[in-house]
Amino acid sequence: MRPLLLNLAIATAFLTATSCVEDIDMGQDTERKVTVNCILSGNDDIQYADLKYTGGIGDIFYESVEDADIVLYENGIEAGTFIKTGDGRWMLEYHPTAETAYTIRINITGYPQITASTVLPAPVKIEKSSDAYVQKGFQAAFWTFGLTNGQKLVERISTDHPDVDNFNIYTDGSDGHIGYLRIGSADHAGPVSFKIYSQGDGITTVFRTVSEDYDRYMKTSLQKALAYSGFDDVSSRFEENTVYSNINGGIGIFGAYIDTKFIADE
Known about the structure:
By secondary structure, the protein is mainly beta. It is 11% helix and 38% strand.
């Protein structure tokens, strides 16, 4: 199972970072497109956007976009313009609001306008009760993962939550999920009590409520990463699964999330 953990490095980049995600080549054609990675964080006052060009099949490094006009809109009203801070990276000082619609518009010379929209969800309603958690709201899917004191991803995690998605369970006969728990949205007559099991002491448990598009992106990205760990089965690299994108005029993801954290012993 060690090869799978190598792929978790890719997944960690977009589940534990506050801003950007790793580039994943989602196209098989040779036409150069713009890859957009912009994930709004409802916990932060600074938002980031990363722009690169796609490369050919087998390319490892991708050329960064040097010049772009990137504007964020809240409910159709301009919220701010991103400023360039580094190679292919732009920044905006802005704190988004939960349950609010956002649109990003990007203009790059020689390319059609790029647009995408998302909605920042409200944080999941979860409380800590002795050795269990209690979920009191079921509006959106959320993801759960554990971080050590050194902020490293806990490799194995499990739960007895009735709505857990088993797409990333270990397949070697051992218990648990690989790195993350995805809890789907579902209706319940009352609160749901559940436990989280993870390895190690001093673990911070993160409940990440995500926009619908970011949820689809994360799941398909992990499915792709797990498929590419295909051990001796080379054909697994050519499976039909593709990574979700909601970028009009390009590829990538414009999504949003908000975290609720429970620190061990607090």
